[in-house]
């Protein structure tokens, strides 16, 4: 009995000592990823998440797509668009970086002329609002006199009668771009920056070499709070399987470290030693506290039992549903905020409407321009569509997908979704709608739209998501004609372990996979079919459905299949794009028509995947940059002949409207 009384203080003393010394001893078991991902310096730049330095850090220290190099520890270099770009400044606060083509500085300092087009396809970056394009025309037989140009005297050519020049193509000048490129051997476009929104005339007064060397700004999409929250908790930001992770001393966590930042090693050792010396003095106090805590716990248990018996469960407190900070990790807006942003949903601010709701232009108090979708009250499935779109968009980050800024609570008086505002309308508007005009959207721009749209769909499919409503009305354009794919109300998460999802017909007439009507099974090839219709619109400038056309050609997909199979492409394409005057345009339009033919096959197995479609489109763009001799036209313009003829029957006979069709089951 005496031995037992002695053993309790000794045991308690030992336990207290172990607990206090644990942080010090635990240093040897520190998470290796925490140490590996400490911020680095490259020259004068601080390198931290989402960036990581190749050959110095593991890829998990940043996002996989944000790899940079740091040769000789002098200046960070970003490899993008098949070239090296010097990172002159990084703003983690604004999610932006200033870059300059390394070749313009090092390889050709006295003749800063680019040799390849710059593209952001396949990268996580976007251009800033002040970006414009500088075009270089090489070895031209004619230099325009009605347009301001920069002569390029250093461009080498064996024919002295040919000239090269550079110019900035501003709004309204795309017809000039199309006609001028026909008189030149090659054309290259690169981005430049207008400082602080300076006007175009100011930029024109500079030397083209200075415009190139000054570089341009790239931005990236990222949650500003996720890394900040991790850092405040004492962690270091990183990623696993392309998803954000917070690396902490004791392990990895999805958002932040479980404990507050620990003090430095020396202080821990001091605390440990002091605790060891004073542990015996704490024994009595600890025993007293443990006893008192036991008594309190007993009393509270008895009290809570008594209360639970006397109070009805219906009177339990419930939180205010509109005060949640996020839903599916998406910020929550109050109805009042969005009502003010849209001037009480003023009809003059309507941007358009579709099968599920009306979209309004709005301006938030922080100055952001937004598009606010107001779901229809009479749509019985609006809650499901609302949750579906928020859930899917919260998982996605891609430069060619529209960003979801937030939404209202599910319990709000109305269901509202808040997106980034994309200012230049839809592809449909520019092809055959209110913004369509001959020469405005040139063939190179259309091909770029196809590539960026395909890139977005490849990303969706890689994320196990099927869009289900791919159409030109759901492809938005910014002022520089870069793509933002939108409208995910019909989209579906696609389980990894199945080959299809059974569902009732949904989508837009003219774009819906005909195989859908046979088995009501959804696959990623359904998006491929719809994208094939988009390709047909891009080459023809015709809408997907037009009841004014011949009954066998009401559906553009049917018309396109028959024209292509019948070697009558000239009856399908928009001739104003230069099909009959520009060899390069004719060649690439023909190749895109062939690709569309494959996408529109009734047999889903005969269609390519979206990844294959994207790869082919990129190859076509490269082909377009090559000079095509007139004699090569006949060989290059041969259309596909090894596919069966298609039925003239239009699938649109089953549909009564041309808007997305909500259904009663999904």
TrEMBL record:
Enzyme Commission numbers on file: 2.7.11.1
Pfam families: GUB_WAK_bind (PF13947), PK_Tyr_Ser-Thr (PF07714), WAK_assoc (PF14380)
Every Protein kinase domain range: 345-620
InterPro entries: Kinase-like_dom_sf (IPR011009), Prot_kinase_dom (IPR000719), Protein_kinase_ATP_BS (IPR017441), Ser-Thr/Tyr_kinase_cat_dom (IPR001245), Ser/Thr_kinase_AS (IPR008271), WAK_assoc_C (IPR032872), WAK_GUB (IPR025287)
Record-linked PROSITE patterns: PROTEIN_KINASE_ATP, PROTEIN_KINASE_DOM, PROTEIN_KINASE_ST
MF term (GO), any: protein serine/threonine kinase activity
Region: Disordered, residue numbers: 643-666
Keywords in alphabetical order: ATP-binding, Cell membrane, Glycoprotein, Kinase, Membrane, Nucleotide-binding, Phosphoprotein, Receptor, Serine/threonine-protein kinase, Signal, Transferase, Transmembrane, Transmembrane helix
Catalysis performed (reactions): L-seryl-[protein] + ATP = O-phospho-L-seryl-[protein] + ADP + H(+); L-threonyl-[protein] + ATP = O-phospho-L-threonyl-[protein] + ADP + H(+)
Record-linked SUPFAM superfamilies: Protein kinase-like (PK-like) (SSF56112)
Name of the protein described by the UniProt record: non-specific serine/threonine protein kinase
Species annotation: Papaver atlanticum
């Amino acid at each position: 009995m005496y031995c037992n009384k002695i053993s309790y203080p000794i045991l308690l003393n030992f336990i207290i000592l172990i607990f206090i010394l644990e942080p010090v001893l635990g240093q040897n078991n520190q998470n290796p990823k925490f140490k590996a991902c400490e911020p680095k310096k490259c020259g004068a730049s601080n390198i931290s998440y989402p960036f990581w330095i190749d050959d110095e850090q593991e890829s998990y220290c940043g996002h996989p797509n944000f790899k940079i190099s740091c040769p000789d520890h002098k200046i960070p270099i970003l490899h993008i668009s098949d070239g090296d770009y010097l990172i002159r400044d990084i703003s983690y606060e604004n999610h932006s970086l200033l870059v300059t083509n390394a070749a313009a500085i090092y390889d050709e300092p006295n003749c800063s002329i680019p040799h390849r087009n710059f593209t952001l396809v396949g990268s996580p970056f976007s251009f800033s609002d002040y970006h414009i394009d500088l075009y270089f025309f090489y070895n031209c037989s004619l230099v325009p006199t009605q347009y301001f140009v920069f002569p390029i005297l250093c461009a080498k050519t064996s024919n002295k009668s040919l000239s090269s020049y550079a110019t900035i193509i501003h709004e309204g000048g795309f017809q000039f771009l199309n006609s001028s490129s026909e008189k030149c051997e090659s054309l290259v476009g690169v981005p430049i920056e207008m400082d602080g929104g300076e006007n175009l005339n100011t930029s024109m007064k500079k030397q083209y070499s200075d415009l190139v060397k000054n570089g341009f700004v790239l931005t990236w999409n990222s949650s500003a709070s996720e890394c900040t929250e991790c850092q405040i908790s004492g962690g270091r930001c990183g990623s696993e399987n392309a998803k954000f992770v917070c690396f902490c001393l004791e392990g990895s966590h999805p958002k932040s470290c479980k404990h507050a930042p620990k003090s430095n090693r020396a202080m821990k050792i001091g605390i440990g030693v002091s605790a060891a010396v004073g542990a015996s003095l704490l024994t009595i106090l600890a025993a007293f506290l443990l006893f008192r805590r036991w008594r309190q716990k007993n009393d509270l248990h008895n009290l809570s039992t008594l209360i639970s018996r006397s109070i009805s469960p219906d009177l339990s407190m419930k939180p205010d549903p509109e005060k949640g900070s996020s839903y599916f990790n998406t910020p929550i807006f109050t109805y009042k905020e969005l009502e003010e942003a849209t001037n009480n949903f003023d009809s003059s601010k309507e941007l358009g409407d579709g099968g599920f709701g009306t979209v309004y232009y709005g301006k938030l108090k922080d100055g952001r321009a937004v598009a606010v979708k107001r779901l229809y009250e009479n749509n019985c499935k609006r809650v499901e569509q609302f949750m579906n779109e928020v859930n899917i968009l919260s998982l996605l980050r891609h430069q060619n997908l529209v960003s979801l800024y937030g939404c209202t609570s599910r319990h709000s008086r109305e269901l509202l979704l808040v997106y980034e505002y994309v200012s230049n309308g839809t592809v449909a508007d520019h092809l055959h709608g209110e913004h369509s005009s001959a020469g405005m959207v040139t063939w190179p721009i259309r091909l770029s739209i196809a590539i960026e749209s395909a890139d977005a769909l490849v990303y969706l499919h890689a994320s196990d998501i099927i869009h289900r409503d791919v159409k030109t009305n759901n492809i938005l354009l910014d002022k520089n004609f870069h793509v933002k794919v939108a409208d995910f109300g019909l989209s579906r998460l696609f389980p990894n372990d199945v080959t299809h999802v059974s569902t009732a017909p949904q989508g837009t007439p003219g774009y819906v996979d005909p195989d859908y009507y046979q088995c009501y099974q959804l696959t990623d090839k359904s998006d491929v079919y719809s994208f094939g219709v988009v390709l047909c619109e891009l080459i023809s400038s015709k809408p997907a459905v037009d009841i004014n056309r011949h009954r066998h050609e009401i559906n553009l997909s049917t018309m396109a299949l028959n024209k292509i199979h019948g070697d009558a492409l000239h009856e399908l394409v928009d001739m104003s794009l230069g099909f009959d005057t520009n060899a390069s345009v004719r060649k690439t339009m023909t190749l895109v028509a062939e690709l569309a033919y494959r996408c529109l096959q009734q047999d889903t197995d005969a269609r390519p995947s979206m990844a294959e479609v994207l790869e082919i489109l990129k190859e076509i763009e490269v082909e377009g940059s090559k000079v095509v001799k007139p004699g090569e036209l006949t060989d290059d313009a041969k259309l596909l002949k090894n596919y069966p003829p298609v039925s003239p029957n239009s699938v649109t006979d089953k549909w009564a409207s041309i808007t997305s069709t909500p259904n009663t089951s999904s």
